[in-house]
Amino acid sequence: PLDLRLRTGEPAQKRARDLLATHGVGAPYVVLCPVAIGVHRGKMKAWDGFKRLNGELLAAGRQVVAMPGPSETATVRHALPGAIVLPESDVGTFAAVLAGACLVVANDSGAGHLAAAVGARLISVFGVTEPEKTRPWSTRATLIGSGDGWPPYANVRSAVDAALSG
After folding, report:
1. Of 48-62, 91-105, 135-149, which gets the smallest average pLDDT?
2. Nearest-CA neighbor of 163 among 28, 20, 3, 6?
3. Helical axes 10-22 vs 91-100, angle rounded to 10°
4. Is this model's pTM higher than 0.90 or not?
5. Residue 128: pLDDT above 90?
6. How far is CA 119 from CA 2, 73, 87, 157, in A?
7. Does residue 11 have a cis peptide bond before it, meaning omega lies within 30 degrees of 0?
8. What are the backbone angles phi and psi of residue 35, rounded to the nearest 5°?
9. Mapping DSSP to helix (H, G, I), strand (E, B) and coil, where does residue 17 land?
10. Secondary structure of residue 33 in the 3-state scheme
11. CA-based angle 113:161:73, to the nearest 5?
């Protein structure tokens, strides 16, 4: 399929709204998903540009949000200093947070695929996995990079700027 259509239920949407409000987050906000656990063909699956992107988005006045998965909080806080790091929650609440974002930037990971499934605007960064095999199913996703190596930072930043201006 070109798009998945995963709907979040009203209870999950309410939990997401309450969680965001508790942490002072209002629209618009950008979600960064810097963690991708594991290796593929001996290479780490996580792009190393998230810290820089986070800093530049914050400097531009953007609200940057992250929502770590189990046991990822310390890694996310290190990768995204100054971002609003929400507490771990259930997948429905996470999906609703992603759906409410003006943009999600993620590795080829579960978080990126969930963002695509709920229809979020997504920049999906590839560097070790093949987009033609593992791409998210979404016409709202922009794929940057390839299985042959991580894209230059400027390419990702350009895609982020285009997404945020459009």
Report:
1. 135-149
2. 28
3. 70
4. yes
5. no
6. 11, 25, 23, 21
7. no
8. -100, 135
9. helix
10. strand
11. 45
1-21 pLDDT, tens digit each:
678 889 999 999 999 999 999
Position 42 scores a pLDDT of 66
**Residue 52 CB partners (closer than 8 Å, separation 6+):** 153
Q: Residue 165 corresponds to which amino acid?
A: S
Distance (Å, whole) CA 140 – CA 163: 10
Tokens of 101: 């974002």
CB 116 within 8 A of CB 91: no
- Alpha helices by DSSP H, listed for the chain, are 10-22, 50-59, 73-79, 91-100, 110-117, 131-134, 153-165
* 37, two tokens: 């656990």
- Per residue in 131-157, pLDDT (tens digit) is 888 888 898 999 999 989 999 999 999
